[in-house]
């Protein structure tokens, strides 16, 4: 099993309790750099995997595959954690690694533990209050949309379809005992509540 573990923005006190627990219990821990290694150090002796900051896609793919091969061997034998700064599902090293694992190693179970992302870290550190819709971009084409407080989820999906979105997920009360996650568009309900979310992907 391979678990992507968000380590937060870099403050040791901003690791979640779950992240710490996973790091302690994992048979092997990998990280993409020294800062992540230092954050993990109190809980595990992590090994650094090098990921060059370059744009040559052929060279990058070679590095991703090499790292995936190495991790897959360990993940088949036990639990492997990959700790990284921020959150593993938002513009992260792990998202690239995950794609390679899913392509070449279908037998390996994958999961993620959320961490405090750069988005919420920025808001806290700069005392910036965000209480209306906002856009996050790295300059690339916008491919995803997340609607919070999705009290009319089916209507939201219809509107997103008109904008070119094709894949949808409905989620409600995440990480609670009453959690609901629906991935089939036709099963998304007419009504949601304050804790409902619609995710759209083009």
Element string (H = helix, E = strand):
EHEHEHEHEHEHEEE
User: Using only CA atoms, what is the Rg?
Assistant: 18 Å
Low-confidence stretches: none
* Beta-strand percentage range: 15-25%
Q: Count of DSSP helices?
A: 6
Measured as a percent range, the helix fraction is: 25-40%
Can you describe what's shown?
The structure is a single chain. The protein has helices spanning 17-25, 34-40, 57-75, 93-104, 118-125, 153-162; strands spanning 2-6, 28-31, 47-48, 80-84, 110-113, 144-147, 167-172, 180-182, 196-201. With 202 residues, it is α/β, with parallel strands linked by helices. It folds into two domains: 2-120, Tetrapyrrole methylase, N-terminal domain (Cobalt-precorrin-4 Transmethylase, domain 1), CATH 3.40.1010.10; 144-201. The strands form two sheets. A five-stranded parallel β-sheet has the order 3-2-4-1-5, with helices on both faces. α3 (57-75) crosses α4. The chain is globular. The two termini are 29 Å apart.
Please outline what is shown here:
This protein is of the alpha/beta class and 202 residues long. It is built from six helices and nine strands.
């Amino acid at each position: 099993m391979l678990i992507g573990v968000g380590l937060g923005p870099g403050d040791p006190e901003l690791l979640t309790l779950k992240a710490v627990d996973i790091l302690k219990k994992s048979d092997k821990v990998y990280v993409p750099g020294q800062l992540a290694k230092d954050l993990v150090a109190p809980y595990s002796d992590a090994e650094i995997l090098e990921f060059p900051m370059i744009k040559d896609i052929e060279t990058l793919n070679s590095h991703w595959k090499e790292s995936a091969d190495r991790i897959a061997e360990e993940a088949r034998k036990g639990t492997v954690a990959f700790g990284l700064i921020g959150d593993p599902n938002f513009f992260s090293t792990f998202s690239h690694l995950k794609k390679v694992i899913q392509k070449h190693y279908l037998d390996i179970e994958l999961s993620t533990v959320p961490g405090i992302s750069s988005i919420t870290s920025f808001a806290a550190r700069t005392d910036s209050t965000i209480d209306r819709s906002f856009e996050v971009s790295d300059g690339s084409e916008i491919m995803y949309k997340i609607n919070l407080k999705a009290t009319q989820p089916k209507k939201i999906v219809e509107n997103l379809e008109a904008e070119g979105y094709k894949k949808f997920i409905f989620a409600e009360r995440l990480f609670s005992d009453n959690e609901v996650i629906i991935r089939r568009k036709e099963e998304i309900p007419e009504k949601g509540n304050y804790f409902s979310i619609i995710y759209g992907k083009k």
